[in-house]
User: Which sequence fits this backbone?
């Protein structure tokens, strides 16, 4: 820890502390108010309006993924890393279609997790279990990505060591996250989201307006980046990338965008955020408003090119062999120390809050859909809380294992790996909102086949730095192009589901009972059968 | 899944909504159609400004789809007035 930048670290620690204290204090203070008052602030579990929901759901998109992983992918591979933009755009027509129906049916039947809905819709505890386990598993690499983000910021600030202390930034990040989650339910993160997003907006706007003027304008940034990317790599003798996609990677670009867009809204933590909305139209409106975040995500991605266009930054990042340092190093080199500290705090809080929400969502899945459903149906609320807290710690340890065991040369792969798994719940969860035609055993079989195919295929991918899980794209059978494994697995999943459903129906194999009725999917607040879901915000 | 009394939306409107929601997929998945540098806009290669522009258009399209279906999702028109006030 020799070259610690005191000002940066001081400002960073100060902001993290202030945001945390303010968030928790505010949550405690509100807790003393009347129910009506709580409802007004949208913390009673039912009246999150358009604005609050926008912040809450935006927080799910605006994570270390946006700030660190996407720019790193652009820094390392050029246009190929920009697929996150089309992903963040086409995800919203899907949100518009499935979000309101999921909201309605969940509020009629008291579903709190995606697995609750699948169990009730298809009358199958086993299918609910499959969805829950997938959600927990998929959350881990996504949380790992947040840890990598905090780690990157700490590294650039000079918090690093050698030997045993080499992973020091990572363990500090982990300890921060564990402390964050332990003390809170979902209340505090919801409030902190406001502070966090405001901080993030200031940093983004300054970065996007200020840095290009320092680097000679956008045109110059793109030209310099192109020159840097087309230089041949001394090891592979190939250019590292280009600022536009080439003939070889059009399929990869499109399938990464499409596959990820299927995943966005079925992650357990996004479902929680959406169900906390007060009315079904809040979700529809948000589908139209959330792309504002995507626009900024696109501009942030271009920070990767700015890092390439500034020779001292590019050299430092390449010397460290860690593209995740691109944005932190860029900030460190162009901003005055105090503002770099603010920016790093924004990234830090922007990683901690979503990671906390994700680990709570994962542990709720376990408690409701595994522990209570299979082992202890009569568990007391106190016992549930204890189990939840314990599992949430296990989930974070799982995330830590992902960080340590996996190739950090491109952190975006962690999120893509989570996507491969979570997309396999799309047929039961998202399509199940529209049709009950699928047979429960067919859905379970399709899920199982696709999970195995996706995991094995991902395992077999090597990269220059890692033998297994090196990348999340692979050859698509029968098509002869490279594409996102999640989407290929999804197609296989659907084929199995459709064929087996036909077969099982022909054989008259008994299907599960559907506890929902068509009108449940259209119910809105104030309908007599619509209920509050207090578990969402107090859990 | 059409529901007799619930989906009062007319077929023409539903078709328009479908087009609005499918268009972004068609645009973005036609990757080779925008994988080029020129024409540039304010220094941005076509690849970038075209995709950024479509983020805005996607939002606008969803906004229109929302305006068109506002009365079709909830079950009674009265509920939508409550919605408007609820802002």
Assistant:
């Amino acid at each position: 820890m020799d070259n610690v930048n005191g000002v940066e670290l001081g400002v960073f620690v100060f902001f993290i502390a202030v945001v945390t204290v303010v968030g928790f204090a505010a949550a405690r203070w509100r807790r003393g108010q009347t129910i009506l008052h709580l409802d007004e602030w949208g913390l009673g579990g039912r009246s999150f309006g358009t604005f609050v929901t926008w912040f809450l759901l935006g927080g799910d998109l605006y994570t270390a993924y946006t700030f660190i992983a996407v720019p790193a992918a652009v820094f390392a591979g050029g246009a190929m890393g920009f697929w996150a933009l089309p992903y963040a755009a086409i995800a919203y027509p899907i949100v518009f279609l499935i979000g309101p129906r999921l909201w309605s049916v969940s509020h009629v039947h008291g579903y709190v997790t995606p697995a609750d809905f699948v169990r009730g819709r298809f009358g199958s505890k086993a299918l609910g279990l499959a969805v829950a386990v997938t959600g927990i598993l998929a959350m881990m690499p996504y949380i790992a990505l947040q840890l990598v983000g905090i780690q990157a910021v700490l590294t650039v600030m000079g918090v690093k060591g050698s030997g045993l202390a080499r992973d020091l930034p990572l363990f500090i990040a982990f300890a921060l996250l564990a402390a964050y989650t332990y003390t809170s339910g979902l209340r505090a993160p919801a409030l902190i989201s406001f502070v966090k997003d405001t901080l993030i907006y200031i940093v983004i706007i300054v970065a996007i307006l200020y840095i290009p003027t320092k680097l000679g304008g956008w045109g110059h940034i793109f030209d310099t980046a192109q020159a840097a990317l087309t230089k041949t790599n001394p090891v592979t003798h190939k250019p590292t990338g280009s600022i536009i996609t080439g003939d070889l990677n059009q399929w990869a670009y499109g399938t990464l965008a499409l596959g990820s867009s299927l995943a966005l809204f079925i992650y357990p933590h996004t479902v929680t955020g959406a169900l906390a909305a007060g009315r079904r139209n809040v979700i529809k409106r948000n589908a139209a408003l959330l792309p504002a975040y995507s626009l900024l995500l696109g501009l942030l991605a271009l920070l990767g090119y700015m890092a390439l266009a500034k020779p001292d930054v590019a050299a430092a990042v390449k010397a460290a062999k860690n593209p995740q340092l691109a944005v932190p190093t860029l900030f460190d080199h162009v901003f005055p120390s105090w503002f770099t500290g603010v920016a790093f705090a924004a990234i830090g809080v922007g990683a901690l809050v979503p990671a906390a929400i994700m680990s709570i969502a994962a542990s709720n899945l376990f408690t409701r859909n595994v522990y209570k459903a299979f082992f202890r149906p009569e568990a007391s609320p106190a016992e549930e809380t204890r189990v939840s807290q314990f599992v949430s710690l296990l989930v974070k340890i799982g995330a830590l294992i992902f960080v340590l065991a996996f190739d950090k040369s491109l952190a975006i792969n962690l999120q893509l790996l989570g996507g491969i798994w979570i997309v396999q719940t799309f047929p039961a969860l998202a399509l199940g909102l529209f049709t009950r035609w699928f047979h429960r055993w067919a859905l379970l079989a399709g899920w199982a086949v696709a999970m195995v195919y996706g995991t094995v295929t991902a395992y077999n991918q090597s990269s220059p730095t890692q033998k297994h899980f090196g990348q999340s794209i692979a050859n698509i059978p029968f098509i002869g192009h490279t594409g996102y494994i999640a989407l290929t697995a999804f197609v296989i999943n659907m084929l199995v589901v459709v064929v087996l459903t036909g077969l099982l129906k022909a054989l008259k194999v008994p299907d599960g009972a559907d506890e929902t009725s068509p009108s449940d999917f259209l119910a809105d607040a104030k309908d007599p059968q619509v209920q509050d879901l207090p578990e969402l915000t107090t859990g | 899944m059409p529901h007799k009394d619930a989906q009062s939306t007319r077929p023409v409107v539903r078709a328009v909504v479908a087009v609005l929601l499918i268009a972004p997929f068609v645009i973005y998945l036609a990757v080779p159609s925008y994988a080029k540098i020129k024409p540039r806009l304010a220094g941005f290669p076509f690849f970038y400004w075209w995709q950024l522009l479509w983020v805005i258009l996607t939002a606008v399209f969803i906004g229109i789809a929302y305006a068109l279906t506002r009365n079709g999702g909830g079950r009674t028109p009265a509920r939508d007035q409550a919605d408007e006030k609820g802002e």
